[in-house]
Amino acid sequence: MENIYILVGIALFVMGIWGFIVTEHLIQKLISLNIFTSGIFLVFVAITYTNEKASSIAIALVLTGLVVSLAAMALGIMLIRAYYKSEK
């Protein structure tokens, strides 16, 4: 069953990288990076999943990563907003 989660995580990873490379709009690039990190988190938890239970260390690391990712997303949005305001 965890193979499905690994495959979905890899698909998210690839879509995030592809979206970051292909798009030119900064907000879309930021969203692509968020999708990329979500794929990494999903693969990490799926790999550490054993005996009907995920590792508590892996869950703690993923939760910490999600908080850091959210803070980076907010900072990125503010920087992009300041960039577009300075262009006008």
Automatic annotation (TrEMBL):
This protein's major location comes to membrane
- Indicate whether Transmembrane appears among the record's keywords: yes
Tell me where in or outside the cell this protein is found.
Membrane
Q: Does the keyword Ribosomal protein apply?
A: no
Residue ranges spanning the membrane: these are 6-23, 30-50, 56-80
One Pfam family from the record? Oxidored_q2
Keywords annotated in UniProt: Membrane, Transmembrane, Transmembrane helix
Q: Name one GO cellular component term.
A: membrane
Q: How does it sit in the membrane?
A: Multi-pass membrane protein
Query: What protein am I looking at?
Result: Uncharacterized protein
Q: Its domain of life?
A: Bacteria
Database matches in InterPro entries: NUOK/Mnh_C1-like
